Amino acid sequence: MLYPIRNHFRQFIDLSGFWEFIIDPDDSGCQKGWFNGLPKSRPIAVPASWNDQFEDARDFLGPAWYQTRFDRPWGWESQKVYIRFNSVNYLAEVWLNGQKLGQHEGGHLPFLFDLTDVIQSTDNVLILRVDGRLAHDRVPPGNITGSDLDFFASHSENFPQTQFDFFPYCGIHRPVLIFNQPQVALEDITVVTDLTGNKGVVQVSVEPEESNICATLTGGSKTPQAEGIQEVEIVIPDVQAWSPQSPFLYYLKVDLLDGEKVLDSYTLKTGVRTIVVDGEQLLLNGEPIYLRGFGRHEDFPISGRGFNPSVIIKDYALMKWIGANSFRTSHYPYSEQMMNLADELGFLVIDETPAVGLFFNADGYEKRLALCRQYTEELILRDKNHPSVIAWSLANEPHSGRKQARDFFRELVDLAKALDPTRPVTLVSAMGVLEESFEFLDFMCLNRYFGWYQESGQIERGAQFLSAECDLLYDTYKKPLVLTEFGTDTLPGHHAQPPEMFSEEYQAEFISRYIEVLRAKPYVIGEHIWNMCDFKTSQAVTRAGSYNYKGVFTRDRRPKLAAHRLREIWTKENEII
Ligand code: GCB
Questions:
Q1: Quick one: how far is CA 154 from the chain centroid?
Q2: 447 CB under 6 A from ligand 1?
Q3: Residue nearest atom 10 of ligand 1, based on CA coordinates
Q4: At what angle do helices 459-477 and 504-519 cross, to 10 degrees?
Q5: 10 near 3, Cβ under 8 Å?
Q6: Is the pLDDT of residue 398 over 60?
Q7: pTM for this one?
Q8: How many CB atoms are located within 10 Å of the residue 287 CB?
Q9: Residues classed as catalytic
Q10: Looking at ligand 1, which residue's alpha carbon is closest to its atom 3?
């Protein structure tokens, strides 16, 4: 899926700014015809979550309505025109000038509608109904009641009642763009890269089928080019491979041709690299890599889960400072801008779908499976061309203790492999859950909290449990393993000697001790701390101030003791990567 760009053939306008907004607590907006125009409403910032912008909306999950107006830019009269929503959480229904364009379920992934026949030259009224309510057959799920509760060990007493541990922020979370395309246009481009010795190979294929294309690669010492129908291969003699130490990006320009005439053109950045699981190792460009980094969240005061460019930059600066080389997009896909910067700054990303807190009982199973298939497709379509993406994660902490889970993931893994045969596929398993799908996944991801939720207060005992369980899993499945979460809630400024739970010392000791255990195991290919920063979650007795305090940075990005400890460990060892 191509991100809108500006060039000789294409333009876009960004509708970010202040829109009109109204909450609809009795869900009567449709009946009252609000899709034709909102009644008295108030201004709201877009993009941003609505929850922290108003006194009466914090725990309100929808439905709510948005409205904005725009004119068609000049020069688009004979062009195709689309609207692209980069992320709306959770269910969006969209109208333009009173006509329904369609709907999209699921946050964090882009969707678009064709406006060509609906757009007017002036005074277009765009209206959205956004519904973020939690339900057992939505993904991620929430508001679980009755017998469904048997499937869960935790998160049944929190408010709002989610089956996941982050605040269920709602709204238009990322920019909304209107863009044009020529009548005959490049609809999609797929780039696959390979390396042999110092030769790089870039395979480029496009949609629509049968297109005549010319692809040109610039950025290196030469400017190789290839012409063909729908699919071409470019060979780079002295390739500069992409890696965290040297995140070199080429510009790939694809022209759509009709004889000599160029009908459309699209330029994207691409890095040439390979990624494979080999025995107990993960190889980037044929060399073993070890992941150091974090599980994270898109989360900041007031803007909530809304796109916040300065926070993105700050987070990358802190990850560089601390010596991280990777992260996981826990527990949903991050913004496309975040992914572009990962390419540019050389971060390795485990890219996760929004499938967190899944369960597998019959009621709602088909709908959840259909949604997970949709998310997997949308994610791979969106992120397939990023060199930074080294693996797809299909879920976080599914309640896999049922035999249906295995069939569910078998289907998703097959789908992911069919869409992208080049990247490893994984999922992230919870403590106390037997994840049989590890059998057909490429590597194992585990979240473990021995010494926190269990063996509380006993770091050494926790470390022993961790060690034993990792060995057991490796002996069973013989696959490499990333510890994708480990950490402790830590109140900034709270100290204890000897270390005690919730103190900065406890967090620093816990993390150091876990890292020692992991480093002694040759099959462990990475350590991701939970979490990079403190973040907002639902209210619960285990979540003081409704925060998860496991950040090594505070929510406003100040380091705790553990951040300094990690920096000592992680910046000493650049030889590993
Ligand atoms: C987990 C979850 C994560 C939670 C974390 C915790 O295993 O994957 O979403 O925030 O534990 O802090 O309990």
A1: 24
A2: yes
A3: 165
A4: 30
A5: no
A6: yes
A7: 0.98
A8: 10
A9: 397, 485
A10: 165
